[in-house]
Amino acid sequence: MYENNQDAVPTLQQLTFSLADEEYGVDILAVREIRGWSRVTRIPQAPAYLLGVLNLRGAIVPIMDLRLRFGLERENYGDNTVVIIVAIAERLFGIVVDAVSDVVDIDPAAIKPVPDMGAVVDTRYLKGLATHVERMVMLLDVEKLMRPEDVETLDAALPAVQEVEVAA
Amino acid sequence: MSAVDLTQFHKTFFEESREGLDAMEAALLALDSGSTDHELVHTIFRAAHSIKGGAATFGFSDVAAFTHVAESLLEEVRSERRAVEAELIDLMLRSVDCLRAMLARSSSGQPVADADSEALRGELMRLASGEAAVATVVAPKAAPANGWDIRFVALPHLLQTGNDPLRLFRELQQLGRLEVRRAFVVDRAPARLADLDPSQCHLGWELRLHGAVARGDVDAVFDWLDGDCELAVEAMAEETPAAAAEPAPAGVPAATPAPAADPRPARETAVASSEGGSIRVGIDKVDALINMMGELVITQSMLSDIGENFQLSQLERLREGLLQLERTTRELQESVMRIRMLPIGSVFNRFPRLVRDLERKLGKQVKLELHGEHTELDKTVLEKIGDPLVHLVRNAIDHGLEMPAQRKAAGKAETGTLKLNAYHEGGNIVVQISDDGAGLNHAAIVAKAQQRGLIAAGQELSDAEVAELIFQPGFSTAAQATDLSGRGVGMDVVRRNVRDLGGSVGVRSESGKGSVFTIALPLTLAIIDGLVTAVGHERYIVPLTSIVESLRLRPEAVRRIAGGGEVFHFRDEYLPIMRLHRAFGCADAITDIERGIVVVIEDDNRRVGLLVDELLGQQQAVIKSLEAHYRRVQGVSGATILSDGSVALIVDVGGVVRLGRRSKAA
Predict the structure, then answer these.
(1) Which residues are bridge partners to B514 per DSSP?
(2) CATH number of A44's domain
(3) Which of A40, A43, A58 has the CB atom closest to B641's CB atom?
(4) CA torsion B375→B380→B382→B385, rounded to 10°?
(5) Cβ(B436)–Cβ(B407) under 8 Å?
(6) CATH code at B527-665
(7) How many domains does chain A have?
(8) Are residues B603 and B504 in contact, defined by beta-carbon separation less than 8 angstroms?
(9) Chain A residues lying within 8 Å of B630, measured CB to CB
(10) What are phi and psi of B395, to 5 degrees?
């Protein structure tokens, strides 16, 4: 599904973080800031993984819990819990992760497509898999992550609609 | 070639030209209503002249050519060789419209001239040549020669008038291939280099323009230099016929008039570009800001003085300093906001023309009165209020005011009066559109509403309820509106637009006497006065302007109605209770109505009681967008940052009231 995504990774530097004992990576160029957990303001009618918004130097930034977004158990927030603020096309949002690990260089040629893991793990938000010092790093597709689910549903429906149009 | 990129000035040119056209229009309308002030003619002429000059400078040759013809007509009026006639004013007003459209097309990079503009230019030319005693400038469109020999000698002050020979050459180049045969220094140039004044020009050129170019087009290029140069233009000597057919150099695309494009995208682009536009700020406003800034600096140094070596005895001075800081900050804030404020006159100005056109079209007589043009509004509000106002004015003339004969029969003056008034009231700007026409036709509105299924047959309605009907979506569609003597052409759209600006619109009408539409708008969109309320762990801001009262209810005051809704008695009516904790899903909130506080909020004369835990106090809230990084949330108009740095959401009163009313109806 993501065979062509190697081209879409312009840089090879990834910020890695841990989530439920797994190692994930996010493009360092998308990362704006790393901060400790602080209380957020809840937003009505938001999905459960969207914890709320916080004030980032005057900007109102939504914060999501990545565990909840991936359908994992919620963990209590502790001293290591951090919020990674990422930006896509000037839109900011924060993701809550268990802990930040390192900044690593990834060889783009070593990035493998995500295999179909069935219903166990939600692979929709991954760009690919990479190996760093014998450990697997799952590369996060930040852009997909911040899109609301209704948009995703629409996107999924779009090809079918276009086919109908072509047929008509 | 010149190193200055002229495109950076295009925006200013478009803005100034639009202002010029507005001035032209206003002066033309004044002339039309019988004024004989000679200064008006000068105003019109000056505006046309500036637009022409600017258009030529920036290479909008179609605009320049069009304005040129109009200007030469005006010149005749100015020198009293031509009388101001209705036909001329009509033509000029249409030219103003045409130029507006042309400018809009140029600003969006589309072909500028179209069939309309060419036709109108023809009409202007015919008027100029047909009747004028002296019609010199109008040259035949057909090119008589294969090219032109131009001898162009600049007078010393040429550069000081803002003219640039390079620009001229560039323009000529657009007409055809330009060959510089000789460039020379004029005899009058100082002999010694030390005497040379760099701001003076002592150069002359002999140029040859190849190609089938009309003499008028060549003249148009130099027209702006009248009195600044010596110029001789002659048909090219027949010696190089081969070069004549050569096209313009590839790097300089010739401005060819293209057929009319779909005008729609042009308009849309123009609107889009105006949104990020600029503001002209009066010097006094800037000076006020600088003053305030000075005070702020003084206060700051005073405070840091105290802070450096603080002793308890200085507590009083510290308190004073902080007070001063607060005062200055508030003033500074107000001054900064004032920069965004522009007089509503800029919107009102379009109405004399609109009224004039409608008068002619409908055969009615209307006297337009404008009041409070100097009332200032936020720029964003101002830009968006224009269309709703046009709608209301159009409606008032179309449906409100009667035909002269009808008015006479009703014992009223044949000329109807339409009044536009803008004024401050509380934290709002109020704009009123009132007419002395027939008023709302209740019977017709009720009949229409029944036909559309908005109300049941035989339902008794109060005047206010009938008036409310015209704002209902689906009450009227444009196609059928004209058969109806009542009003309501897209009034739901007007209401929606005003609501989007945080305002409200209502109508009062008296049969036979007229109607008054009242639009209330917030002063600014950026800051509101809010009441901070607590619901569970969350804080919500309720805009102060929409709060009627806050009260604690006794248990017996609350009634539960079938279907689970709750209402309470408040000033002779039953209001639905909207539990904010339920609507927003807050945990740990007070659920006993008796223990919480009910804040009565109002939107469009509809009220609901909002249940919150407690009131925490009043605060000015700087509105931050949720959409910038997230998305729109129902019932929330934005967010703000509290003094402790945390985020509080601002309640969208209109949305919450609608939500509350719906749950009551359900």
Answers:
(1) B510
(2) 2.40.50.180
(3) A58
(4) -130
(5) no
(6) 2.40.50.180
(7) 1
(8) yes
(9) 43, 53, 60, 62, 93
(10) -60, -45
Residue A92 domain boundaries: 12-167
DSSP B1: -
Q: Is residue A33 part of a domain?
A: yes
Between CA B323 and CA B318 the distance in angstroms is 9
**What ipTM was predicted for this assembly?**
0.77
| Chain position carrying tokens 């006479």 | B408
The position carrying tokens 């790093």 is A137
Q: What is the pLDDT of residues B358-376, one digit of tens each?
A: 888 888 889 999 998 888 8
Contact A60 B631 (CB under 8 A): no
> Which of A41, A45, A93 has its CB closest to that of B648?
A41
With CB atoms and an 8 Å threshold, state whether A62 touches B586.
no
Helix axes B38-57, B10-32, angle to 10 degrees: 160
Q: Architecture of B343-522 per CATH?
A: 2-Layer Sandwich (3.30)
Q: Which CATH architecture has domain B143-256?
A: 2-Layer Sandwich (3.30)
Residue A3 belongs to some domain of the structure: no
Residues whose CB falls within 8 Å of the CB of residue B242, separated by 6 or more in sequence, listed in order:
none
Which 3 state secondary structure label does DSSP give B41? helix
Which residues of A fall within a CB distance of 8 Å from B628? 59-60, 91
Task: From B137, B135, B101, select the one nearest B119 (Cα to Cα).
Answer: B101
Give the angle subtended at the CA of B22 by the CAs of B19 and B28, to the nearest 5°: 145
Domain spanning B6-139, CATH class = mainly alpha
Q: What is the pLDDT of residues A60-100, one digit of tens each?
A: 999 999 888 888 888 888 777 899 999 887 789 999 998 89
pLDDT at B275 over 60: no
A103's CB contacts (< 8 A; 6+ apart) are A13, A14, A15, A16, A28
What H or E segment, with its residue span, contains residue B529?
Answer: strand B527-535
> Per residue in A26-70, pLDDT tens?
999 899 999 998 889 999 888 888 899 999 888 899 999 988 888
- Confirm whether A104 is domain-assigned: yes
* C-alpha to C-alpha distance for B666 and B661, rounded to whole angstroms: 9
Of A44, A55, A93, the CB nearest to B647: A55
What are A10-31's pLDDT values in tens digits?
A: 557 899 998 888 899 999 989 9
Cα angle for residues B432, B434, B438 (degrees, 5° grid): 150
User: Tokens 């940052």 map to which residue?
Assistant: B641
Residue B586 contacts A, CB cutoff 8 Å? yes
Name the residue among B562, B563, B551 with its Cα closest to residue B594. Answer: B551
pLDDT of residue B518: 92
Contact B639 A53 (CB under 8 A): yes
Cα separation, A68 vs A81, whole angstroms? 14
Q: Which residues of B366-378 are buried (b: 16+ CB within 10 A; e: fewer)?
A: bebebebeebbbb
Among partner residues B625, B628, B646, which is closest to A39 by beta-carbon distance?
A: B646
Q: Considering the domain boundaries, does residue A7 fall inside one?
A: no
Q: What pLDDT is recorded for position B516?
A: 92
3-state secondary structure of B219: helix
B177 and B249 Cβ atoms separated by less than 8 Å: yes
Q: Is the dihedral of CA B117, B122, B125, B126 positive or negative?
A: negative
CA gap B204, B189 in Å, rounded? 11
Residue B584: closest C-alpha in chain A: A44
| Dihedral sign (CA A121, A126, A131, A135) | negative
The shortest C-alpha distance from A77 to chain B (Å) reads: 18
